What does this fold into?
Amino acid sequence: MTTTAPRPTKSGSDSGGGRRWPVAAAAAAVAAVGLLARRLRNGGTTAAPPQPPPLKVPRRGSARRPIWSAATARASITARHLRTDAWWLQPLITVVVLVLFIVYSTFRAFQNDFYFAEPYISPFYSPCITTGCQGSTFPELFTGPSWISPAIYILIFPLGFRLTCYYYRKAYYRSFWLSPPACGVREPHGTYSGETRFPLIFQNVHRYFFYFGLVFNVILTYDAVLAFRDETGAWGHMGLGTLVLLANAVLLWLYSLSCHSCRHIFGGRLNHFSRHPLRYRFWVVVSKLNGSHMQYAWISLIGVALTDLYVYLLAADVITDVRFF
Ligand code: FES
It folds into this structure.
């Protein structure tokens, strides 16, 4: 005779159900406490707190309204900012340094003199491409009116490269146009259209100015190589001016190679770095340089001005070059 053992039931009061009731009681207690807390917060009612109206953001290009407007998209606080640090210092320094550079470089570009002291030529005047040039470091391509400085013909390229630089854009948007002057500080403008419209949309030409900048770097490096000649044209000379021109060329290369456009040339529009190992290696190097682009921008800018100043003082016989050999 066989006997069948009784099968345990799911609802047995001595197994699962017996162990679950403390859990259920705890959950109910937590819910009750939460309900009570919400009631106290809402002044005795359990209704959900009132929500702010949904943010209205105008659709792009839907009308003549700005893409982003202070009235619809910004927090409405009366204070212009809540910062307590010297946030104004950086924009102020930027303004002072850039204004000094603009004044000095404009004066030198229009001066049309004292830009060549054998064998050195000022970077503001190189390449010197007219028949009226002092010295002969570059083919003289045409005869311009003598009252037009040779620097004027080439000015647009280094100027355009710097003006459209992503870093300088940030710097002068913040410091000159206060747009915004610093992080967390409200700008005085009511609307913001970014760089999507005239005239700032032309900032996109930076990628083309980058190539012109490379050409100028090659020419200024060539000038530095020519500085290893003495006044008679014999090779094997080195003076302080040689080092100054050399340092200027190196700084300009660092500035150009750390450019965001340069980084994009090597690493942009790629889906798989693994299929482009050479570009990947260049991209890694350029990315490292790119992290210091701001520093290279300032150092190279000051370097260009000091190089010109050195040649100016030599050409004007204010100082004499230090000869090493
Ligand atoms: S981003 Fe500064 S030079 Fe290109």
Remarks:
- The radius of gyration is 34 Å.
- The pocket of FE2/S2 (inorganic) cluster is lined by residues 165-167, 206, 210, 259-261, 293 (CB under 6 Å).
- The first helix runs from residue 16 to 41.
